[in-house]
Write a structure and sequence with these properties.
alpha/beta, FAD/NAD(P)-binding domain, D-Amino Acid Oxidase, Chain A, domain 2, 2 domains, eight-stranded mixed β-sheet, 11 helices
């Protein structure tokens, strides 16, 4: 048994948006909470391969400081490689995940969470009513575990939870290209992000993107993993588009990183006091790949399920409480989007019809109102 200093009510594994937000809610709810992360977060946070676009509602909801925003966005420009373009208006922000995640982790610490950095999980074992987590630096115990350690979640792998189907995984490649603000404003516009589509001539199931930050363009590409033959060659096809070539011609690469994104739910999201949140559970928009708000809300719902179970003395219903909250908020919509995704990427005609609808409607409206 771990010493009382190393015993917690809740251990959250992974200090991304889902984990930090869950830890914050946990501590505010009176639980002794440990937030574990395998990397050094440090003063400036740690790099995450991510376009970093978020809705303005999220900026306002968490009171995210405007001086931490890399670029304020007013439109999403959708390019099909055959030359057709669509424009979706709406305010948003592009952020560096290092800065954003650090902001949420600091919020958790300010709420009373204990943070342990550079402590990769080596093992997790059930010990009576609690779980023991072993890292290189120590052993910690808790009644509840929040797995927010990403799509490949070591926590859930060690617990032998089932993994995602290959058709529910997207392989992405991200490059950070340093240039000047003036040039970005000139070639991409001062307040736009750009997505690129084309089933036949670019990406069979996925898209590519140019997300401008202050003086950097985040260049990304993502394709369903079981359809990828040669990711570097396929990524190069995107970079060779004349629009992209022009946007990147005066830039220098600072980072190149592959990354997996889930676009379908993990076969289970709860078992025996362990909750999967965010990417660990595949709680991501299957069409857009948006994951940050879903990670944060699922983290919050996991803590609320624990509170409800304890309050009503219905500890056997934790999974039901969690699932119902997720279903009510967005899980039904995400499941419907996963089915629709196969139809959208069936042909370029279907894809272009979706893009033209996306100009005017939210993607959830298109799917739930069966506009496609």
């Amino acid at each position: 048994m771990a010493s009382s200093n190393n015993f917690f009510d809740i251990i959250v594994v992974g200090a991304g948006p889902g984990g930090s937000f869950a830890a914050k809610i946990s501590a505010e709810s009176g639980y002794k909470t440990l937030l574990l992360d395998k990397e050094l977060i440090g003063e400036k946070g740690r790099y995450k391969a991510c376009g970093g676009a978020i809705a303005w509602e999220l900026v306002e909801e968490i009171d995210y400081p405007e001086d931490k925003i890399a670029r304020v966005i007013e439109s999403l420009e959708l390019h099909h490689v055959d030359g057709e373009n669509y424009s979706k208006k709406g305010k948003g922000a592009v952020i560096w995940r290092s800065t954003f995640d650090k902001f949420l982790t600091d919020m958790a610490i300010d709420s009373g969470v204990k943070l342990k950095e550079q402590e990769a999980l080596i093992d997790i074992k059930k010990n009576g009513d609690t779980y023991d987590i072993i890292t290189k630096k120590g052993k910690y115990s808790a009644k509840y575990i929040i797995a927010s350690d990403g799509v490949t979640s070591p926590t859930l792998k060690l617990l032998k939870w089932p993994y995602f189907r290959s058709e529910d995984l997207i392989l992405t490649i991200t490059k950070e290209m340093k240039t000047t603000k003036t040039y970005i404003d000139e070639v991409l516009g001062s307040d736009s992000v750009h997505l690129f589509f084309g089933i036949k001539d670019l990406i069979p199931v996925g898209y590519a993107w140019l997300f401008p930050k202050t003086e950097t363009i985040t260049v990304g590409w993502g394709n369903q993993i079981n359809l990828v033959k040669n990711s570097r060659e396929e990524f190069k096809k995107f970079e060779n588009l004349s629009y992209v070539k022009n946007a990147l011609k005066n830039s220098n690469q600072t980072i190149f990183k592959p990354h997996l994104i889930p676009v379908g739910l993990r076969p289970k999201l709860y078992e025996d006091n362990v909750f999967a949140v965010g990417d660990s559970g595949g709680i991501v928009d299957p069409i857009s790949g948006k994951g940050i708000p879903y990670a944060m809300i699922s983290g919050q719902f996991a803590i609320e399920a624990i509170k409800t179970g304890e309050k009503r003395d219905k500890m056997d219903k934790l999974g039901t409480f969690y699932q119902k909250s997720l279903d009510r908020k967005f899980l039904k919509i995400l499941k419907a989007k996963r089915e629709a995704r196969d139809r959208i990427f069936q042909s370029d005609d279907n894809l272009k019809k979706f893009l033209s609808l996306w100009e005017k409607y939210r993607s959830s409206q298109i799917i739930m109102q069966k506009l496609l």
